[in-house]
Amino acid sequence: MLAHRFSLCFWLAPIGSLLSLALLAGIQAFASAAEPPDLILHHGKIVTVDREFSIREAIAIRGEQIVAVGTSEEILATKGEATKLVDLGGKMVLPGLIDSHVHATGAAMHEFDHPVPEMETIADVLAYIKSRAAALPAGTWISVRQVFITRLREQRYPTRAELDAVAPNHPVMFSTGPDAMLNSLALAESGIDKNFEVAGAGYVEKDAATGEPTGLLRSCSRYVKSKSSGRQASDKEQLDRLSALLVDYNSVGLTCVADRNASAGGIGQYQKLRADGRLTVRMMISHGVDGSGKLSAVQEKIREVARHPLRKPDPLLRIVGIKCFLDGGMLTGSAYMREPWGVSEIYLITDPVYRGVLMIEPDNLNLIVQSAVDEGLQFTAHSVGDGAVHTLLAAYENANKTTPVRPTRPCITHCNFMSREAIEQMAKLGVVADIQPAWLYLDARTLTAQFGNDRLRYFQPLRTLFEQNVIAGGGSDHMQKIGSLRSINPYNPFLGMWVTVTRQARWFEGQLHAEEALSREQAIRFYTMNNAYVVFLEDKIGSLEPGKLADLIVVDRDLLTCPIDDIRSTQVLATFLSGKQIYAKP
């Protein structure tokens, strides 16, 4: 009860009178005298991220919870004989950071078989494929995954002929999300020829003169009959690599992440890590569901997820909802847009009215969303293009006619291309956003070349989202490799913060619509309190307030006053989860 009273008083103190502050100090002193804290961090800059973004000097922790924040003098007065004291020496303390979108189980295993070099050019891609061809027996599949054409200097796919030249005796797939470029042997082994027809979403690009496949598959790489050529990991090896990745998350300040497309097997791995005491981040899960399948089967899967034991509230490991894929990608040329993409050498688009790929028909989407809302699940869908965003919002609007959707915190994942009217509709319905600033950093150059500056006016419009009171949280979509800056995509949250406040990008001059830049305070909220709300944990984490779990980090610079370009190179000195230090910088 006392912790609850603390929380209430502290919440009101910044807008209350001096009497309220005195009362708060009295309550804290009384409670602390009765039961001293286990740990006090003092003489620092405690960024609480409460409603008023209050800055304090010290914080007291007992067990797993924060019991008080205030001046160093006030908090040190509550210490007991066994209280551990840490002098911060002026260092900044933030709430533990949260990433709204990772794929941890797959990312951890990406380099299990062999190291994969960074590839910035077509020459890099071809050299890697040639090296694999030399290392593998003829006929063995070679797969290059998630080396996006937007991030290659040439801004294009490798051609079928180029892949044939470096690996004529190996089937090769250059895969980027649901799209892929195949060489001739891969096409033949997959049975894809001039007579091949796609059932459902996507299509095979064919030469206008000959009708032969060019090698490019749009949103239908499901037809590729590739086989893994790598070593198979044991259960122990998978868990060890996943644990190592989570520790690396801790090293950049992450104490909570959302797995945005978890499989049953991946969820089982998280459960095993928890049982072994090695789950060092809070894992909030969107269970993956294939929304393009038979409608009755999709609805039954949703009901099955709703019955899962991990649906019950748990601040360490919980299924919060489901995830589907609604369109393709902006990195590959298949995001579903409201206006045509335009003829493009970058994306090999020859159809002037091509708008991308929609993977779920709107009528089916309406019923799928309704099923999720009825089960109390947060629905989210990979929705990159503005056409997909508007389609998903229409489904939320439809469901809201019979069942209020706001309590389920309906989400849009990625939502890179938006519009003013979409943002207003999100605010009205209570739709939240899961956005990846690193995509702006890595892809602005190619997107500007494809669409022009004007069409990118509402690309990741973060300031407008904040101004319209839409809760948007920052994520990475981390999918491959361990290492916050070498990963695909980078999961370093300080790089993400820097991008949100500068709107600057790699290999790109100037700023991409600087009017959508966040303030430093907003950038911190983006990775703390906003994300806590997105994953249903705002009453437990996201701010440093009495009664909340003691998830916090100590950083080496003042993010509110340091030179703006220094934000991206911020180092974490210590990370705490539930009051326990889980990382210290060597």
Give short descriptive properties of this protein.
586 residues; alpha/beta; Urease, subunit C, domain 1; Diaminopimelate Epimerase, Chain A, domain 1; TIM Barrel; 3 domains; eight-stranded parallel beta sheet; six-stranded mixed beta sheet; 18 helices; 23 strands; 32% helix
Summarize the model shown.
32% of the residues lie in helices and 19% in strands. The chain is of the alpha/beta class and 586 residues long.
Question: In words, what does this structure look like?
Answer:
- The protein has 18 helices and 23 strands.
- The chain is α/β, with parallel strands linked by helices and 586 residues long.
- The protein folds into three domains: 89 residues, Urease, subunit C, domain 1, CATH 2.30.40; 108 residues, Diaminopimelate Epimerase, Chain A, domain 1 (Roll); 347 residues, Alpha-Beta Barrel (TIM Barrel).
